[in-house]
């Protein structure tokens, strides 16, 4: 399989870092991004700081960050074959307590970050007549929890799901494939030592591991015939839950 150039946003920790490592281990070139330069440099070194790795710090909600990611990828590796829009935040607050600043936090990072980074990268994919964009969503978009008041975060992810389908329609004839991976609860630093407390929210009665997501991202990235899909990698969380 030919070596490709992969751009991963939100790659300083958790799922993003795991995805970057997975592609590096498979022999691809990777450009990693994070808002925090300090955290990004630490991850850069942890991933080996090799010739097949580059980094760009910046806020993905600013289109200039996407343009810098494109520039870094082209200057060092000559192409951008896969964009993984992983950067995102999640929090909960009751609907009636959500103000504009709180809502904008999620719209800026989750939705605008995905939108504008993709907008910066797709022209290069059009020139190449090939490319893959993989967004990170959530099965909660179509599976509500009454005890989880997270309308701001989930609505922003819902916008990503809608964007995925429409972009797949707009760019399918140009051989650009757009998909979303929707993880269940994954064992990451964000959940600390409490991840396993959520096992029962999944039909498999366990939480996922970072490589569960990285494997699917890799599979979709290398496929030539998957587009417009929202793919749950969630242990059955989107389908139901265990009551016992």
UniProtKB/TrEMBL annotation:
Tree of life domain: Bacteria
GO molecular function per UniProt: oxidoreductase activity
Keyword annotations: Oxidoreductase
PANTHER family cross-referenced by the UniProt entry: OXIDOREDUCTASE, SHORT-CHAIN DEHYDROGENASE/REDUCTASE FAMILY (AFU_ORTHOLOGUE AFUA_5G02870), SHORT-CHAIN DEHYDROGENASE_REDUCTASE FAMILY PROTEIN
Family of the protein in this entry: Belongs to the short-chain dehydrogenases/reductases (SDR) family.
Protein name: Glucose dehydrogenase
Species for this entry: Chryseobacterium angstadtii
């Amino acid at each position: 399989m030919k070596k490709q150039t992969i751009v991963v946003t939100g790659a300083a920790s958790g799922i993003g870092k795991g995805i970057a490592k997975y592609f590096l281990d498979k022999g691809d070139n990777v450009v990693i991004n994070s808002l925090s330069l300090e955290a990004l440099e630490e991850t850069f070194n942890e991933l080996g700081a090799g010739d097949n790795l580059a980094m760009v710090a910046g806020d993905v909600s600013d289109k200039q960050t996407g343009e810098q990611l494109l520039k870094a990828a082209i200057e060092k590796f000559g192409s951008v074959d896969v964009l993984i829009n992983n950067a995102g935040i999640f929090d909960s607050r009751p609907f009636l307590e959500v103000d504009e600043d709180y809502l904008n936090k999620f719209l800026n990072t989750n939705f605008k970050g995905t939108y504008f980074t993709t907008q910066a990268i797709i022209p290069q994919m059009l020139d190449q007549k090939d490319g893959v964009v993989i967004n990170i969503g959530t099965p909660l978009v179509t599976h509500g929890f009454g005890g989880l008041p997270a309308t701001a975060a989930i609505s922003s992810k819902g916008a990503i799901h809608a964007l995925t389908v429409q972009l797949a329609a707009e760019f399918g004839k140009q051989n650009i494939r757009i998909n979303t991976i929707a993880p269940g609860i994954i064992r990451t630093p964000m959940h600390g030592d409490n991840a396993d407390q959520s096992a029962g929210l999944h039909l498999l009665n366990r939480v996922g591991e970072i490589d569960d997501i990285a494997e699917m991202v890799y599979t979709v990235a290398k496929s030539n015939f998957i587009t417009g899909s929202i793919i749950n990698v969630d242990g059955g969380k989107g389908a139901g839950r265990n009551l016992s």
